[in-house]
Amino acid sequence: MRTTDFDFDLPEERIAQEPVEPRDAARLLVRDAVDGGQLRHGQVSDLPDFLRPGDLLVVNDTRVLPARVLGRRSTGGQVELLFLQPDAAFEQERGWRAMARPAKKLKPGERLECSAGVVARMLERSSEDGTWAVALEGADGEVRPVEEWLARCGVMPLPPYIQRAARAEDAERYQTVYAAEPGAVAAPTAGLHFTEALLARLQERGVEVARVTLHVGAGTFLPVTAERLEDHDMHSERYELSEECERAVRRAREVGGRVIAVGTTSARVLESCRAGGGSGAAEVRAGRGDTRIFLHPGHGPAVCDGLFTNFHLPKSTLVMLVASFIGTEETLAMYRAAIEAEYRFYSYGDATLVLR
């Protein structure tokens, strides 16, 4: 298949710049194969009505780091750093891999002054992707975990298509209510719709909720530049699926429940840990590691029976993942209907539920 097969006309005004309140007041477009693919409209707060007792929702409990840091060079020039993940090659220096902009004039050993008395020390630039190994420390050389320094001087790394600066309220709103494991540089945005009250109603409905962890990286925003899908180099992200989640999937299978991924990130973890079985029947095995799994038509899910997710951008790996569940034409038709009905797209936008 070609990347252009997943192109569609998305008016700029359909990309949400602000979240709705409360979280579960966002709109929900439902496509259930049992109904012949008929589209139904509702709100996220209606989600329990579309699920059955015994169903399992799998959420991603990664926690977004305030990973965007502004530093100032001794010359006065400003540099923006986006901290991605720990760099094993610089573990002793507590170095992290970071994107720097502008990066051209930076030199190893250079120190950037950040806010709250934090200093960014540039260690080494990668010749492969241009990212830097960077250490954060106190102005007096004080050593602390990078996460603590980021909490002092960093801001939430809102996606590039949200065309405004991060505000104080984004520190709470660009985070799921169940976020627990620090490490992401972007939110698992499908989960942003859930409230404690909605989770309680799902439990009352007999729907179980299990957790996985996938630390969303900046690669999730990279465009697909290859003409053919099979030539795309998928980005890598760190994940963990616990024995508790493995047992939850097994319980759902035993009672005839459906396994529904909350977000593309949860789907990637579940499918990375698939263990035998046919389409829609596979179980999972607990594990952790790095995944480059690329779900798209022809390479679809074997564990997930459904997907709750936001609306994604044209030609992105995320819309290709949706198409791996219901097909390319069906996905494009659903997206055209959503645009016509003025649904809001992407991180702070509305949601869709597709059931196979």
For the structure shown, list the relevant keywords:
7 helices, 9-stranded mixed sheet, Thrombin, subunit H, single chain, 2 domains, globular, 6-stranded antiparallel sheet, QueA-like, alpha/beta, 356 residues
Brief characterization of the structure:
With about 350 residues, the protein is of the alpha/beta class.
Explain this structure.
With 356 residues, the protein is of the alpha/beta class. It folds into two domains: 248 residues, 3-Layer(aba) Sandwich (QueA-like), CATH 3.40.1780.10; 86 residues, QueA-like (Thrombin, subunit H, Beta Barrel). Helix content is 19%, strand content 27%. It has seven helices and 19 strands. The strands form four sheets. The protein has a nine-stranded mixed beta sheet with strand order 2-1-19-18-14-3-12-13-17. The chain has a six-stranded antiparallel beta sheet with strand order 5-6-7-10-9-8. A hairpin with a 6-residue loop joins β1 and β2. The longest helix is centred in the last third of the chain and has 13 residues. The chain starts with 26 loop residues before the first strand and ends with a strand. The mean pLDDT is 95.
Write the layout of secondary structure elements.
Blueprint: E1 27-32, E2 39-43, E3 56-60, E4 62-64, E5 68-72, E6 78-86, E7 96-101, E8 111-113, E9 118-125, E10 132-138, H1 146-153, H2 170-173, E11 181-184, H3 196-205, E12 208-215, E13 237-241, H4 243-254, E14 259-262, H5 264-272, E15 274-275, E16 283-284, E17 287-291, E18 306-310, H6 317-326, H7 328-340, E19 351-355
Parallel strand pairs: 1-19, 3-12, 3-14, 4-11, 14-18
Antiparallel strand pairs: 1-2, 5-6, 6-7, 7-10, 8-9, 9-10, 12-13, 13-17, 15-16, 18-19
